[in-house]
């Protein structure tokens, strides 16, 4: 945590985690200013209250004065996304009568936070932050994560808490509840109605009713009612669904300090409680660290990974896993942590022992609670379209103000009453500023979401669909994503002294040796419902031995003097060859290995078997046991794209007893290993991988591989799938930190020839401060791809300068041996360069990157997983083009909808302004025809067009405030206005025309002027709908949308009837003055056709011309600003 400055204006920075960083500003209530604000709310008839409701932080700023946080009773919080929130500081009395005293609180929180018998805290986004009066800062209530060493779980907590201790902890940490409040319908209704959109609707309807537009107002009220009802239904349904997903009401068996086990409600659990996991399994209701026994857990709800995971007891010391951590950490010790919301399928316990776990986090502090918080408080999308929409609304509001002034001046000059003048002025505001504009931007996203769902792609964050339309780089995991999830055994190559033996295709006929025992035992497989289940690689390896895996029986356990979790035996069922797996050290992405401690029946000593990445296993093995040609042999396999694992063994100390083995740390035994050999597996590309990669690259979308596999294997797969084309260079970047300083080695990898050109860049000096600089001589005409492993990536991230990091992110194509944190860090680095990043993966190791990306797609059978915004039941990367196509279709639909509604408002604005010039206005049903019959049906049907079949190389614009959009709107407004003015002046020249005789305070609707202009405007709405309906290259052609075509045909048919053969009833209803001259009607139709042709020519010929748009935007005369990644991509960075 970082304590911020004490300056009241700058605030105090609270930095707990990467995502839990914010700045606090202290405020103290002023009674005088508070009463003054209440008076202001009354005087403005609630308008000020509405503004304060929309902007709660303004209420704090106006009614309070700034002060130091120690004096504050309210705070304004600025989060990392520059959003402001208001929170109240709460106080809790702590005295002799309190459940929890000052000494206990100090012991639990490791600091003294009580001043004058008061504990001060605030709750921000469901998390409690405690005020530390000594440090004068807030700190996050962290429960047991981070502050507790692993040994404390065994030394102090394994026997449980007393009832009194549990009550004291509950006083501090609260109940173990994840509460999702489903607001009552009346509350939802009030909140929905107070939305700025509906407030403006209420204002507009009030003006229209005062102006006599009863039918039109009734239709708008009806539509708004339907819209509010649907919004309430959707909001309440989502809240109920989320509540049902997280709601739980079970009892848990808890071990108390005196050895008694009692049943308690799950909400009574507190950090430090010891729970007993039932043998038949359960759903976890808290985060807990496992102390005894093993658990088989399904974590698909959290990670999307459907393969069960084996959880083992946490080691006694913090660094037992070799991760260098100082205390227990749920992420570092995830293989020992049972997460809230996960399903424990079954448990493995030892004779006479219960499966016990210590509660470490409760409520919203749990993994499940954090995921729910991410849903309740989502990360805002950095997408400028909505900002531009509100900016454009401000421009329309300026036109409305001009129209308001014009209306007042005009009607004052004609001598109308004050009330009538005010109504006319307010009416022009409701016309010029379309209230439906912001809401219309979501129509395209909703249709795209429905189409994606039909293709097996589910989205829990529809706002991200538009973002998918602007993706320009997509990162892929390798195994299970680009390649098949299952692997085929290529064979085993054993070490024979200082050389390798021949490759053995099968080991089933081999005499039983250490390599067979390693393949049979070094895995995390388990039997679930009579079938072997676990990691696909482990499954293939074990099946290659032909051995059997059996769950132990009570009789078998006596042969080992204890109950063994798993027994493996050869198919001949020779009792002497039974091997019991006594302890398992689970696979760790950071450590790149797993191991097991085993004992063969009637053997006095225990044996350790280790399996993992060849580089890691050789670093732990005796050099004398590693073949001299190890690296050459490994390279020959990985360059051909094989997945290679290494095996090693070690005979443990004969004095090591079973009880000591249970408590031993992996770093005590995973050393001085005897290298056994290599396990070679063949991983085939999925059939869809190569075509999809080619499709993305043809569209100008960069592809990147992020994998935990060997770098040469990854390079081979990158070449095979087309990420790296023939003729393009690959430069392997290796960075390491030594005693003499930092060293950067650049190696050009040449496929097939074995040629490797290497250059060194040595940087002498202190390794802690020396920076690495990436400098490569340019090569003309060829693109160069960087390939780097996780170790070098970390060194560059920690010690390289900013330019080097940026070059690596822009030119890097293959990132191998990457940990989950490094994957997420790479995605963030790409985003920092203003890339729009997509991520596709299938495993738990990809969760961080999936959430960090603008559009993360998880390949999982789960319909809706909180692991990523998108989940695909299509188990290959063909879902990525679908997401991008639909994103682009939704994006251009939103743009078109915006332009259509804005232009329709301007058409009405021009019509009304012209009418005001001769003291007339449109009739009730004229507005209904335009707004209900034309605009509403077009809005509902326009977004139904399917996405285009191919991804265009040219990306759609992601901003509204660009030259093409502005020029299009301005030219279209001019065309529509000129056509309306033209028909007005043509009307004045007709011999039969009689000007309107104005009557003071009369609507003056029934006249030839209004009728003529309305007949032109009637066609202009449908003209704009047609020219602004996007087609190729982002959506299919307009004629493919049958519903939309029928709607347009009906609209034009009705408009033609009203123009040429209007029934008397329609004329009376619309207040149209009958025009008997078919010659003039032909002129109107001619003007309409000219309008259509001009509008179409603008969109088809003028707007697509890039040179003209550059000229109009003055880009030819000023320096073009490029995004950071574009500038770097233009630099020659090759070897």
UniProtKB/TrEMBL annotation:
Domain P-type ATPase A: 249-374
Span of domain Cation-transporting P-type ATPase N-terminal: 151-207
Topology relative to the membrane: Multi-pass membrane protein
Protein keywords: ATP-binding, Cytoplasmic vesicle, Endosome, Glycoprotein, Lysosome, Magnesium, Membrane, Metal-binding, Nucleotide-binding, Phosphoprotein, Translocase, Transmembrane, Transmembrane helix, Transport
Record-linked Pfam families: Cation_ATPase, Cation_ATPase_N, E1-E2_ATPase, P5-ATPase
GO cellular component, one term: neuron projection
Subcellular location: Cytoplasmic vesicle, Autophagosome membrane; Endosome, Multivesicular body membrane; Late endosome membrane; Lysosome membrane
Domain P5B-type ATPase N-terminal: 19-132
Membrane spanning residue stretches: 32-54, 178-200, 212-233, 389-416, 428-448, 900-919, 925-943, 964-988, 1008-1030, 1042-1062, 1082-1103
UniProt keyword annotation of Transcription present: no
GO biological process: autophagosome-lysosome fusion; cellular response to oxidative stress; intracellular calcium ion homeostasis; intracellular zinc ion homeostasis; positive regulation of exosomal secretion; protein localization to lysosome; regulation of lysosomal protein catabolic process; regulation of mitochondrion organization
Family: Belongs to the cation transport ATPase (P-type) (TC 3.A.3) family. Type V subfamily.
Oligomeric form and interacting partners: Interacts with MYCBP2; the interaction inhibits the ubiquitination of TSC2 by MYCBP2. Interacts with HDAC6; the interaction results in recruitment of HDAC6 to lysosomes to promote CTTN deacetylation.
Function: ATPase which acts as a lysosomal polyamine exporter with high affinity for spermine. Also stimulates cellular uptake of polyamines and protects against polyamine toxicity. Plays a role in intracellular cation homeostasis and the maintenance of neuronal integrity. Contributes to cellular zinc homeostasis. Confers cellular protection against Mn(2+) and Zn(2+) toxicity and mitochondrial stress. Required for proper lysosomal and mitochondrial maintenance. Regulates the autophagy-lysosome pathway through the control of SYT11 expression at both transcriptional and post-translational levels.
Protein name listed in UniProt: Cation-transporting ATPase
Organism of provenance: Patiria miniata (Bat star)
